[in-house]
Amino acid sequence: MEWFILQKLSALLSYTLKTHVAEIGLLIFNCSDLSELLANQLSDKAEVLDYSRNKFTTLPIISESKECPDKHKCTTTNSTYHCRLDISFSRNQISNFTEESLRAVSCLRTLDLSFNELTADAFNANTFQSGVYYLQRLILNNNPIGRLPGNVITQPFMPYLRELDLSHCHLEDLSNKRQNQLTYMPENIFGDLVSLKVLLLSDNKIQGFHEGAFYRYSSLEILDLRNNQLTSVPYTALDKLTKLQSLDLSQNPIRQVTRGPITSGVQTLALDNIPDLAELGPYSLASFTGLVSLSVSGNKALQAIHPKFLGDNPATLKHVRLENNKLSTLGSDALPWKQLTGLKLGGNPWYCDNQLGWMIKAL
Known about the structure:
The protein is 9% helix and 12% strand. It is built from three helices and 15 strands. It has helices spanning 2-24, 235-238, 357-362, and strands at residues 26-28, 48-50, 86-88, 110-112, 137-139, 163-165, 198-200, 222-224, 246-248, 268-270, 279-280, 293-295, 304-305, 319-321, 342-344. The strands form two sheets. The protein has a 13-stranded parallel β-sheet.
C-alpha cells in the first residue's frame, strides 16, 4: 500500500511539475550530466533556463525564443512574449565562452556562471558586447578569475546591471599599480556601472582600491568586502559612493580605524572578526554620521573602545552589536543608550566594578 501511494504521489508531482513548468516558462536540466545543449531542448516558452550541476566546459550558444519579438521592449512587461530571461550554468566546468554564446538573446536579466573554472583568459573586450544589454544580475562568484581587463564590464554594454557578484574569485588588487606581480584590476573598472546597486567582493585578496574605482554618481547601495587583505578603510574610493547604505569590512587585517571623509549615507557597518583590531580610538568611526546599525563583534584582540569613537553619537543609531570581543569596560558616553532598540554585549570579559555601575541604570 505504501509503495502504491508513493507511486501515485510521484506521478502527481511529476505531472504538477510539468504543468507548472509550462505555465511559468521554466526549463530545468540541472544534475543531468549534460555536456552540450541540444536545440530541441529549448522550448519557445522557456524563460528560465537552469543547466546547473552538469558537465559543460564551454558556455553554449543560447538561441532566443521565437516568441520574443526582435523589437520587443525588454523594460516593459507583456504576458504574450516569452524571452530568455534567466540563465544558470552554475556548478559546471566552464572555462571559456565567446561573444557568440549570448549574441542571440535579447532580454536576459540574470546570468549565473558561479562555481565554474573561468579565469581571466576567458574574458576579452568582446565578451559582453552582445546579449547582455538588459542584464540586471551577473553572478560570477567562485571562479578563479584573478583579474579582469578594464573594458570587460562597462556601462555601454550593461547599463541596467544592478548586482555583480565577484566573491571568492581570487581577486588580489584593485589599485592602479602592480605590486609583487599581483593580479591587476585597473582604474575605473566599476566606474561606468551607473545602475549597479549590489557589489559582492568578499573572499578575495584585495589589498586596496584606486580612488577612481567607482563612478562619481554611482548608484551602489551594498558593498561587501569581507575576508580580503584590506589594512584600512578605503575612504578615497568610498567617497564616490554617495548612495552607499551597507558596508561590510569584516575579516580584513585592519589594525587601526582612522577618521576619513564624511560618509553620511552608510546605515549599516560591519567590522566583525578582525583579528588585529585592538582598539577603536577617538573619532575612529565619526565619518559614519548616518549609522542605524553597527556590528563590531568577534574581534579577539579588541580590548578598548574610546567614549568618543563615534564622535557625536549619530541620532539615527538603533542597533549595536559588541559581542565576543575582549572588552572589560565601556564608557557611559560611548553609545546613545536610550535611543537604542537593539543591543548585544555578550561574550566579553566584563569587569563588574564601579566603572560599569552606570550600565545597570542605563539598561
